[in-house]
Specification:
The structure is a single chain. The protein is of the alpha/beta class and about 400 residues long. Among the domains are: about 130 residues, no CATH class; about 130 residues, no CATH class. Helix content is about 35%, strand content about 25%. The protein is built from 10 helices and 18 strands. The strands form 5 sheets. It has a 6-stranded mixed beta sheet with strand order 4-1-5-9-10-18, with helices on one face. Strands 12-15-14-13 form a 4-stranded mixed beta sheet. About 35% of the residues are buried.
């Protein structure tokens, strides 16, 4: 299998945490086949643009797979006219990498390719000159550049096209470098397309809802498959794992209202820690509990009538976990093992069961704090989803 390439926007308001997350848990589930990232090449870009993204995509192995972690948007509003990626189109662009720009790039790419073909046409005889002139005029019309002046010579017709391309670059794509910048981007697109990538997969908030935009990105990249999530993606650095009593203490301190605190010792609930967590789950749906699950199989009595029965046994709670959005696209999390040792320490075997069941089965984790990634789905029954939960891949669209 070709090396998987991971490109991460790591700058201010970026997702640099993802680089460390995939080092701790080198695995990403997907409906197109889970990504084993143990030998992946991770590249972080601080001040990313779509043009830079193309340059880095071109460094991926031919026929390979690329995972892109960045911010995106799917809403139309006062700022964004269409869905897209939250990054500038290019270093000298005044617009973001949104679907309107993707469509103009596709149109410009087609026009520029045709212009190269026209330039290669012979023009020695009058008949050849007329045929070439007709092609330039047809291209100008097709590309909505207007109609060239009557009697224009071949050099004038080519210049008419170049001026039109420059206008599209400056006005349509707001590239200060005009046609020069646009042609540079088109060259980068060509290099990516020559790789014939098998798959490009985004972990970029909700852009997967807009399959039209995904289709345009797929065409720009020239890949066989393109996937993106329909939910927001979060990465959280070093989630503390403690006992239920410590979880109780942390929750109260992070959710004070005015000078109010529950009765009991300072900063603690008067309730049994497990009962307190149950109350938190009732009042704050962003808190979930996880079970130690044992799967079994009962063979059929008659194989001609039945295939047998899969059984699921819930052996007991192993972990309570809270994920919250504390401000737009900024998340925090905390967790506690349901049981503790005689020395009032977390039951690390339970934490390990949780990690291997819900995050990564082959993880090397055994104890301590760990990083968390998932999909943020507060409008659904489950307010957030972890990678190994069955519903996780249902929130990824493919075109």
């Amino acid at each position: 299998m070709a090396e998987i390439h991971i490109i991460i926007h790591s700058g201010e308001h970026g997702l640099g945490i993802a680089a460390d997350y995939y080092k701790q848990f080198p695995w990403e589930p997907s409906p197109a086949g889970d990504l084993d990232l143990q030998d992946a090449k991770i590249v972080t870009i601080e001040k990313i643009t779509f043009d830079q993204l193309l340059v880095e995509l071109a460094n991926a192995p031919a026929g390979g797979t690329v995972l892109i972690v960045c911010h995106a948007h799917d809403e139309r509003g006062a700022i964004f006219q269409s869905s897209g990626l939250l990054m500038p189109l290019a270093a000298d662009a005044s617009i973001s990498a949104q679907d309107d720009a993707f469509q103009r790039l596709l149109e410009a790419r087609a026009a520029n390719r045709k212009a190269k073909t026209i330039r290669a046409m012979p023009s020695k005889t009058d008949q050849e000159k007329k045929a070439k002139s007709d092609e330039w005029i047809g291209l100008a019309t097709e590309f909505s550049l207007g109609y060239p002046p009557d009697g224009a010579t071949l050099p004038q017709l080519e210049r008419f096209f170049e001026n039109g391309l420059d206008s599209v670059a400056r006005k349509g794509l707001q590239l200060r470098g005009g046609a020069t910048s646009l042609k540079r981007m088109l060259d980068h697109i060509e290099k990516v397309q020559l790789l014939k990538l098998d798959r490009v997969e985004f972990r970029a908030c909700k852009i997967g809802k807009d399959t039209e935009t995904l289709g345009h990105l797929k065409e720009l990249f020239g890949c066989r498959k393109l996937l993106a999530p329909t939910a927001r993606t979060f990465y959280i650095n070093r989630m503390p794992v403690s006992t239920l009593d410590r979880f109780d203490h942390l929750y109260i301190n992070e959710h004070r209202v005015g000078n109010f605190r529950p009765p009991g010792p300072v900063g603690r609930s008067f309730k049994d820690p497990a009962d307190f967590v149950i109350d938190v789950i009732r009042s704050n749906p962003k808190t979930r509990t996880f079970w130690d699950v044992e799967f079994g199989f009962i063979p059929p009595a008659n194989r001609r009538l039945s295939l047998g029965t899969t059984t699921i046994k819930l052996k007991g709670h192993v972990l309570a976990m809270l994920v919250e959005e504390i401000r737009p696209s900024w998340y925090r999390a905390s967790a506690a093992t349901w049981h503790e040792t005689s020395g009032h320490k977390p039951a690390w075997d339970d934490a390990s069961k949780f990690v291997h069941e819900y995050i990564m089965k082959q993880a090397k984790y055994s104890s301590g704090d760990f990083m968390v990634s998932g999909f943020w789905t507060p409008e659904e029954e489950m307010p957030w989803l972890l990678p190994n939960e069955p519903d996780y891949v249902d929130h990824v669209n493919q075109v």
